[in-house]
Amino acid sequence: MRAATSAGSVSQDPADLTAARADRSGWPSPAPPAVVVRAVGVDDVRAVLRLAHEYRVPVVPRGAGTGLAGGAVAGPGELVLSLERMNRIRELSPADMIAVVEPGVRAAELDQAAAAHGLRYAPDPASHDISTLGGNIATNAGGLRCAKYGVTREAVLGLDVVLPGGELLRTGRRTVKGVTGYDLTALLVGSEGTLGVVVAAALRLQPIPPGQPATVAAYFRDAHAAAAAAGAVLAAGVTPALLELLDARFLAALDAWRGTDLRARGQALLLAQTDGSGAEADADRLAAAIREHATVVEISTDPASADELLAARRLALPAIERLGRPLIEDVAVPRSRLAEMVEAIARIGERHNVVVATLAHAADGNLHPIFVVDPAEAAGAGAGAGQGGAELGGAALDPGAPQVPEAVWRAADEVFTTALEMGGTLTGEHGVGLLKRRWVAAELGDGSVDLQRRLRAVFDPRGILNRGKVLPDPAAITDITDATSIADTAGVVNGAAPEGAAATADTAAAPGAAAV
Amino acid sequence: MRAATSAGSVSQDPADLTAARADRSGWPSPAPPAVVVRAVGVDDVRAVLRLAHEYRVPVVPRGAGTGLAGGAVAGPGELVLSLERMNRIRELSPADMIAVVEPGVRAAELDQAAAAHGLRYAPDPASHDISTLGGNIATNAGGLRCAKYGVTREAVLGLDVVLPGGELLRTGRRTVKGVTGYDLTALLVGSEGTLGVVVAAALRLQPIPPGQPATVAAYFRDAHAAAAAAGAVLAAGVTPALLELLDARFLAALDAWRGTDLRARGQALLLAQTDGSGAEADADRLAAAIREHATVVEISTDPASADELLAARRLALPAIERLGRPLIEDVAVPRSRLAEMVEAIARIGERHNVVVATLAHAADGNLHPIFVVDPAEAAGAGAGAGQGGAELGGAALDPGAPQVPEAVWRAADEVFTTALEMGGTLTGEHGVGLLKRRWVAAELGDGSVDLQRRLRAVFDPRGILNRGKVLPDPAAITDITDATSIADTAGVVNGAAPEGAAATADTAAAPGAAAV
């Protein structure tokens, strides 16, 4: 490994190891991993996976550590393979309208680079400033404009992936269309680092729509009415570039923080944007469709005042964070059930006496119930957290944070179950990670879970990649009883660490607010 | 099987068996299959696949038989499982903007049913009147408007699939977004009937864009200039709903047939449509972007005259068919290489002295070189066809048609190779089937082919489903040496044929012209 990872670095610095225990899910591992290897090139990744496969060392691929489902948290005996330093945009071809990137590039960076050519990278997870494209690909991230312009899967044309054992697999192509063989690209997108490690991606770029977008802010008597209005928008044949719903909790938090009086206009907000040559006409159609449901409707085509209207969405999470630590959930329901689900979440919060604020990508039926853990309450709670729910207990954001009250997890459980009962899904865009494994079989069925385990074994026969993530009951995936022991993992890598590499201490967790 | 398929029908009528030898690829099987079973419900499909798995009977799933790559042709000893009678739209939900369909529904039927609610099914393969949605899903079919609105994969939210052995697998969901587990839906889309048999699909519908589309017809001095203009359209930031290129051969065929004088305006035609509220503004931008390249530019926003402009595209294939039998090819290249590929195809045709006309979905870089086999020439050829090229020789459309000259196959071979050299793909939207197996490894690499074989074995461990299709060297997929013999296949099914079922004689091949 010495030669192969000479350009990378190997760290056992306690700060590095501790940082890799957590992401932004509130689901840290019980103890630090054995080692962090930072790859700077494909050869590093190949060398690590070759050795890890040979010695059955469990590997956790990791980008910026901004995940919300525990998909990149690492625990005892595990090797963290950080891709953050593989952060070059290798190519940006305006003529082909594609970019080829390494996994550590941030979505916003690519978007900005493309803008110089009148192009953009359409998927825009709210975390696009802090999360990496590798992580976006691992979770098939959505974003604000994905109802109109597609989620990450639609933007990924091809991948270079290193498989356990070190083999390099190329999937897909540089063309927009192509159907030769099975769609391995789509299978890998959203696989949360359990099938292979993405080392490069060919991504589709799209033209920036011409003209200025038009922005509509509409207020409603309650979130149910706002959700119904979102349905009316779609029924009117308008496909907005953005359609975001904020409930009364968000408006209250914004008012309290910023001294505004949004709640004088209504108890829920629907923010919409239309774009392209017909932006104004579409905004008018949209406004007409929702006016009867709304208390107040404001339209702007001027960038400055549009920005003002959008401020509520942009500042929504920071506003909520002032109330306590946010645990960000993510479910999706069929579009017709959006209003019903918004109500169900509020009722569940009341029943369990927990604070829950809801925002939604309303055009997708994708809701983010945000549980707010009061700092005082959180500090006093947690006695039972590690006991009853090995699956559910745990702290958040950083491994030292206070534990999450059981009531919050019980409410979350009910939210997930309700979404499934409505024909929805456990996760619209954040992934399963560790956090939602226990509900996966309820959504997919045992037959599908079993099939997926067997597919996983084709890519990773020894079960070394992000084991225990995504699919329930990892023991069933592969026999890992003969895996290298915890002590061995450190030893194997330690012996091979290049000189001077272990001192690196930058953290893998990105700064900045959590984002949805 | 008697009980389980009591509602279906089993046929050994020679007309049925003969029809199942061919599709529209020019690649019939050497002899008829053993039997055709027409399923009318999921239980029929489960019963057939349970028995077929048990007795190792090879099964060829088949819809309308309109495929262009031999993916649904059936040969000796094979059981044809026809899904054409499973043709109900089970549900159409305007509120959820989805439809749930059986595989035998035609895309155009669904599109029409959705139109009653202001919605549409976006993927519009040119075959949408005659091909089934099951076939569209099997090949991940594209279409004229897919550059803006997505290919079939983007429209498929979930599938019900029967696996070999008879198990029913549900993939995906009714929600627009969802990332729980691996994307089996996307893996199955485009798998050409080799992983499972689709018995139902939840499909996304989209609003019909408001207003009238605007149509632009532009003529150019040659196809190279037209292709360059297509690039200029995209570079100008316009995303047309349709952008079709026709070369001089097509214009000549249209003029000869219809008495028009298109070639007085230019030697190549680019047809574009913009849609939505900004259709006219976008058409103006588009026209401005291409004007310097063009000899003539015509714009229309009036439905009747737009229809007139689009007639050239609609009638292109019928016009070519008057010259001889068309063999429709399908490659895609990175967008920047479109003009180069158009030229390469023409040169290859000249070099091999074969007639080739090219049309292209120009916004996607997806080209359809159409080789025209002159009836006289075709009748006289074919002596060598069955000899040198077991892979390439063969007749077309119906099994009795004259063989394709070797020169055509040699030219096709060069077209495929050239597309791959340009970083393109063997097939943009028609699939690999039998026709392109020999080039698959050149595109995907041996490692990927091997991985795909192992994935296939997870779904179909005995290799009974559409064996020999898509991946090269079927023998490597699974050991089929102990498969039921040809005589046995007929015997197994024959013994179970319900009374009166064998007399059904309608053909599985759809009427109407081939379409791209």
Describe this structure in words.
The structure is a homodimer of 516-residue chains. Chain A has helices at residues 14-19, 42-55, 107-115, 133-139, 146-149, 152-155, 184-188, 223-235, 248-258, 279-290, 303-314, 316-321, 338-352, 375-380, 385-388, 406-421, 437-444, 446-459, 486-494, and strands at residues 9-11, 35-38, 59-62, 79-82, 89-93, 98-101, 119-120, 156-162, 168-172, 197-204, 206-207, 214-220, 242-246, 268-274, 296-300, 325-328, 331-332, 355-361, 366-373. The first copy, chain A, is of the alpha+beta class. In chain A, the strands form 4 sheets. In chain A, strands 12, 13, 14, 15, 16, 17, 18 and 19 form an 8-stranded antiparallel sheet that branches. Chains A and B meet through strand 9, helix 7, strand 11, helix 8 and helix 10 of A and strand 9, helix 7, strand 11, helix 8 and helix 10 of B. Chains A, B: Residues 28-208 form the FAD-binding PCMH-type domain. Chains A, B: Keywords: FAD, Flavoprotein, Oxidoreductase. Chains A, B: Pfam families: FAD-oxidase_C, FAD_binding_4.
The pair of chains with the biggest contact is:
A-B, 95 and 95 residues
Number of strands of chain A: 19
Oligomer: homodimer
Radius of gyration of chain A: 23 Å
Shape of chain A: globular
Largest sheet of chain A: 8 strands, antiparallel
List the helices and strands and how they pair.
2 copies of one chain form a homodimer.
Chain A: E1 9-11, H1 14-19, E2 35-38, H2 42-55, E3 59-62, E4 79-82, E5 89-93, E6 98-101, H3 107-115, E7 119-120, H4 133-139, H5 146-149, H6 152-155, E8 156-162, E9 168-172, H7 184-188, E10 197-204, E11 206-207, E12 214-220, H8 223-235, E13 242-246, H9 248-258, E14 268-274, H10 279-290, E15 296-300, H11 303-314, H12 316-321, E16 325-328, E17 331-332, H13 338-352, E18 355-361, E19 366-373, H14 375-380, H15 385-388, H16 406-421, H17 437-444, H18 446-459, H19 486-494
Parallel strand pairs in A: 2-4, 3-4
Antiparallel strand pairs in A: 1-2, 5-6, 6-10, 7-11, 8-9, 8-10, 12-14, 12-15, 13-14, 13-18, 16-19, 17-19, 18-19
Helix pairs in contact in A: 8-10, 8-13, 13-16, 17-18
